[in-house]
Amino acid sequence: MRTAAILTAAGSGSRLGHELPKALVPVRGEPIVVHAARALAQARPGGVAMSAVVVTAPAAHLAEFERVLPGVQVVAGGATRQASVARALDVLADDVDVVLVHDAARPFVPADMVERVARAVLDGHPAVIPGLPVTDTIKQVGDGVGGWPVERTVDRSVLRAVQTPQGFARDVLVRAHAAAAADADDEQLAASDDAGLVERLGLPVWVVPGDERAAKITTRRDLLLAELDLEENR
Q1: What's residue 233's pLDDT?
Q2: pLDDT grade, residue 234 (50/70/90)?
Q3: Domain boundaries, the chain
Q4: Which of 97, 166, 170, 172 has the fewest CB atoms in 10 Å of its CB?
Q5: What is residue 147's three-state secondary structure?
């Protein structure tokens, strides 16, 4: 079975305080998206190389993405992450059976975690996500002014902080996006990740162990920490 990856990189860099799109912001001299694409290329899902990596990029910056990612297919992203993934799905070769969806903002995902997600899909799970145990105490709160009343303490032993890549049987992911597109006007049905779209189909989603190295770069502090980690691991 052939595995391909969709690398979502159409977000802005505003929260990083940068004029470039987030995925083009450099970390130790190379854009975030280059690190992320390399991490996916190093994985061997099912024991073989990734058959393709498709990158979604801001429409106004396609040329820059194509320049830093020679030989990688780049498509213009949509207005939302969901729309971007749907566009990338449309250009995948017909013989791709397993699709991994990864955020470029997690550029240092280790190869063994990518392989772990893909292997679980190959083993028969229609949707697979990596997750880390939640270590903070979590409180559910109600409405308030200047603060919030605690309603209950959530049992963190059954909680997982979800990462990417998320893996899917291709037909399941296509169905999930088609259903989401049909319900696009219903904001109550919005999902924050692709696994959420699969959950709405009533299909099971399987969680495998994540990895702290797959941390997300969102703020300037995250960027600085990523640069320090990369320097230490060289």
Answers
A1: 67
A2: low
A3: 2-232
A4: 97
A5: coil
Do the beta carbons of residue 125 and residue 104 sit within 8 Å? no
Q: Which residues, other chains included, contact 158 with Cβ-Cβ below 8 Å and sequence gap of 6+?
A: none
Shortest CA distance to 16 belongs to which of 29, 27, 28, 30? Answer: 27
Distances (CA, A) of 191 to 10, 80, 154, 215, 224: 18, 11, 22, 21, 30
pTM: 0.94
Q: What does the alpha-carbon distance between residue 76 and residue 54 come to, in Å, rounded to a whole number?
A: 10
Say what the pLDDT of residue 148 is.
97
3-state secondary structure of 172: helix
Structure token digits, residue 176: 């999930």
Q: What letter represents residue 133's amino acid?
A: P
Residue 212 contacts by C-beta under 8 Å, 6 or more apart in sequence? 132
Sign of CA dihedral 111, 116, 122, 127: negative
Helix and strand counts by DSSP (H, E) for the chain: 7, 12
Per-residue burial over 190-210, b if 16 or more Cβ lie within 10 Å, else e, is eeebbbbbbeeeebebbbbeb
Give yes or no for a contact between 126 and 57, defined as CB atoms under 8 angstroms apart.
no
Going by CATH, does the domain composed of 2-232 fall within 3.90.550.10? Answer: yes
